[in-house]
Amino acid sequence: MICNPSTSQALPLPKVKTRRVKVRTFVVYDPIAKLFKLLSMTWPCYGTSGKNCEEYQVLTLGAQTLLWRMVDCCLPHHPVDDGICIDGCLYYQAMVDFGSGHYTIVCFDVRSETFRFVKKARGMALYGASVLVNYEGRLGQLQSDGLHIAGIVTCHTRSLELWVLVDAEKHEWSKFVYALPSMWKNVVAEAELYIVGRTSTNDIVLSRHYSSDVFYYNPERNTVIRVEFQGMDVFNHLRVHTFLNHVEDVKLMQL
Questions:
Q1: Do 155 and 184 form a contact (C-beta atoms < 8 A)?
Q2: By the 8 A CB rule, do 147 and 157 touch?
Q3: Of the four listed, 14, 48, 158, 193, which is most buried by Cβ atoms within 10 Å?
Q4: Over the stretch 194-204, which tens digit does the pLDDT of each residue have?
Q5: What is the gyration radius of the CA atoms in the chain, in angstroms?
Q6: Which residues contact 241 (CB under 8 A, 6 or more apart)?
């Protein structure tokens, strides 16, 4: 299904052509052709041969006939995060050779429907310990200072690290370290946070897994602001997912 949360409209999409059971789908955008596409990957959930994706398919929204098309990928992998679309490219973290512990960053060109791979720099953390962000039109990656496993950020965290991709062909990255202000401990208190992402105004957004509290850290002003959403008490014991840069669109969808 594809759903517009502003209008509560939901439309069915063609079923992915697969005999596999597990499916992971990304929504991507081609800014040149002004087309939305879906990239779906499927893999088996049985057997002992591993969990690499075995089928890669693309569907173009708005086409006269909605059909899934198979595309090739030179390196079998397994996606491990939701990814981010920047200037016609989808970037996401993935495990290569499932179970090996080897991770990389996948770049899917939406227009040409081809895959490339970007190696991480030494010191970069992937899979659960970091998040990919849009840094002024370039791919960036945010992580904590490494004091805690699984990327958890607490009052004891001293700094956040930002890695920015300089050259995808040469796998070159630049590193920026943001020392957190002295007020950090008082504002965060006992909360355990995860990094959500970065806004266009350079605010780094952090959230709690089981609370509606959201924290905005601005490295330029060196400030921390805590925002608590009212009326969310009923969800206190449920997992909360925070998304950035939502724009309402009340137009009815047509597929």
A1: yes
A2: yes
A3: 193
A4: 999 999 899 99
A5: 19
A6: none
